[in-house]
Amino acid sequence: MNTSFSTIKLIRYAVAYVFITSGFMKLISTELANGFLNLGLPYPHIMLYVVVLLEIVCGLFILLNKAVNNAVIPLIAIMMAALLLTKLPSIHTGFLQFAFNARLDIVMIILLVILYNRSLK
To answer: Which residues cross the membrane (predicted)?
Structure first.
């Protein structure tokens, strides 16, 4: 039982770290922000700030173990959109290249689902 708790805690810390740093980097890195703005999304500047806000706030909720099941839902949506918009286009270069490019997105989706399922118990 103690091992399971520590594992979930480590998953929470890792997931929170990824999303909080990702959110802040989109704010301070013009290269990351420009990449996001060029995805072809409607209202790209507003979408950028919405994603940044969600990543940081939901990351903090996960870090603090508050409303984790609610916090992971928008993050799963963000990761699915990132997978579809930024990684799926690379599938034309081959499945292995796509799998390599999508590895972090896939791992983060899996970890978010684990956190969601764990918070329901």
So the answer is: 12-34, 46-64, 71-89, 95-116
- For residue 41, what are the domain limits? 2-120
How many structural domains are present in the chain?
A: 1
| 115, 8 Cβ separation under 8 angstroms | yes
Q: Which of 19, 29, 26, 14 is closest to 74 using CA atoms?
A: 19
| Residues 87, 102 contacting (CB under 8 angstroms) | yes
* Tens-digit pLDDT string for the chain (121 aa): 455 568 999 999 999 999 999 999 999 999 999 999 999 899 999 999 999 999 999 999 999 999 999 999 999 999 999 999 999 988 999 999 999 999 999 999 999 999 999 877 6
Whether 18 and 60 have beta carbons less than 8 Å apart is answered as no
